[in-house]
Amino acid sequence: MIVTIDGPAGAGKSTVARLLAERLQFNFLDTGAMYRAVTWAALEGGLDLTDGERLSEMATRIELRIDAGRVSVDGVDVSEAIRTPEITSKIKFIADPPAVRSVLVDLQRRFVGDRNFVTEGRDQGTVAFPHAECKVFLTATSETRARRRWNQLPAENRPQLSAILQQQEERDQRDREREVGRLVAADDARQFPTDGLSLEQVVDRLVEWVGERQ
Ligand code: DC
User: Fold this and answer.
1) In the chain, what are the helix, strand and coil shares in percent, each to the nearest 5?
2) Residue 195 C-alpha to ligand 1 middle, in angstroms?
């Protein structure tokens, strides 16, 4: 069985998907980490970020591993390096070109195979796994999402909440307007607003819902 969790930045997808996978005893795939790792590889290799063809060729060539929450590129552990603001600001060059997305979607499908998986991203229910049995579109208001992100940052170098809100809105807009793999709920996805719910409540409800459909 495949459970897809899509939604905007800061909706809590990664944490919810990881906990849901643990509870269901499914495998878990964070596809945002794949886009981040390819962005890291492009910067490390000094590639022209506007050359989609070259970037997709590089994405095919590198050895990308995601195992037990650690991410590596050609044997280098990049788990922390892919979470920097610099990587986040450059991801669009990797997430926009359809040729690069196609390489990563193929990799996601091979990774999942016919095993039980919770996958998380923007296009999981629409493009990567349109036949998934359970599709969730996790949302929360912009304000809630920005506040959650702000709370996760270390108190000593927290930017203004308004700055986080603005960056988040720019990223959401870019994710929604992408030519291929745009952020949109699949027609058969369950819309799941998380405002006012604790993490445990969200996961409990999803465990119950997936259980009913199993
Ligand atoms: O979930 P995240 O913040 O780690 O994702 C980083 C970026 O990667 C996000 O802004 C859009 C892109 N992404 C994508 O285009 N498709 C996915 N399936 C996952 C992430």
Assistant:
1) 55, 15, 30
2) 21
